[in-house]
Design brief:
By secondary structure, the protein is α/β, with parallel strands linked by helices. The chain is about 25% helix and about 30% strand. It is globular and about 50 Å long.
Length: about 270
């Protein structure tokens, strides 16, 4: 049992400014009882041109962004889920959108590369996304043991693919951690529905950390960072602007819920092996 916090940002193209915002909010979180902090997708870099992800990509294990977050985790004795950071890949022309987890000693313990890439033109809108032009898709799920429970890591567009979370649930996860940068248009109609669906169907806590606001690239993100209970109740939410939310992860109540409402034990997958 313990508390977890999720930060909401409105990041831009200046990495130093973005990291300053992260540092300021984590300093405030350090004065609470939280043991873990989740950062949004693209927390350190929301560029004007997507090609800048390539320009600012880091080698895994070293770089301005990674070193900064590692130092914060160590300084404030917090676990930090930093999602996402552009990391160089073997592809050469594209990078990985990597969510990296650091323990309270500042040690890197996990890397999740975003699997589902957002290649979409929004209906009735000029907003168009082509993540696969700049990013290499990940190929495996990532499960981590944390001080608050067993967690599955996902990122933004992954939320729309329940199969990913079923694979995680086979590994007995208790928490879903989701950095995101959901669009304003889709978020208004889909965000809360999808977050609560993933919580309810997997009987898991869901902790989402989001971008929220207008960005220099002309796009608008939805915000609404949320922490949701396994029963689908909103435990805390920040709709707009920069800030953070905090809630308790109570595994004893989760255990009781799963015993009294054993839906996960009743699951039957139909089809060929």
């Amino acid at each position: 049992m313990g508390n977890i916090s999720a930060i909401q940002l409105n990041s831009g193209p200046n990495i130093k400014v973005n990291l300053f915002d992260v540092s300021s909010l984590i300093e405030k979180i350090a004065d609470t009882d939280s043991k873990m902090v989740v950062l949004p997708e693209n927390f350190a870099l929301m560029p004007e041109n997507d090609s800048d992800y390539i320009k600012h990509a880091e080698t895994l294990g070293d770089g301005q962004i990674q070193n900064f977050i590692s130092e914060l985790a160590s300084r404030y004795k917090l676990w930090i889920v930093a999602g996402s950071i552009p990391i160089k890949s073997s592809d050469g022309k594209r990078v990985s959108a990597s969510t990296i987890t650091y323990n309270d000693k500042g040690e890197q313990i996990s890397v999740y590369n975003k699997i589902h890439l957002f290649d979409v033109t929004l209906p009735k809108s000029k907003e168009s996304y082509n993540e696969s032009k700049y990013f290499v898709p990940g190929e495996k799920i990532e499960i981590i043991n944390t001080p608050l429970g067993r967690a599955g890591i996902a990122c933004c567009y992954d939320l729309r693919f329940p199969e990913l979370f079923r694979l995680q649930q086979k590994e007995k996860i208790e928490i879903i951690i989701l950095p995101a940068s959901f669009t304003e248009q889709t978020g208004q109609v889909h965000w809360e529905v999808l977050i609560k669906a993933r919580a309810i169907e997997n009987l898991c806590f869901v902790v989402s950390s989001c971008q929220g606001g207008y960005h220099i690239n002309g796009k608008k993100t939805y915000g609404h960072s949320m922490i949701v209970s396994p029963w689908g109740k909103t435990l805390d939410i920040i709709e707009k602007g920069k800030g953070f939310i905090t809630s308790e992860i109570d595994l004893s109540r989760l255990k009781s819920l799963r015993e009294n409402f054993p839906a996960l034990e009743h699951m039957k997958l139909i089809g060929k092996e």
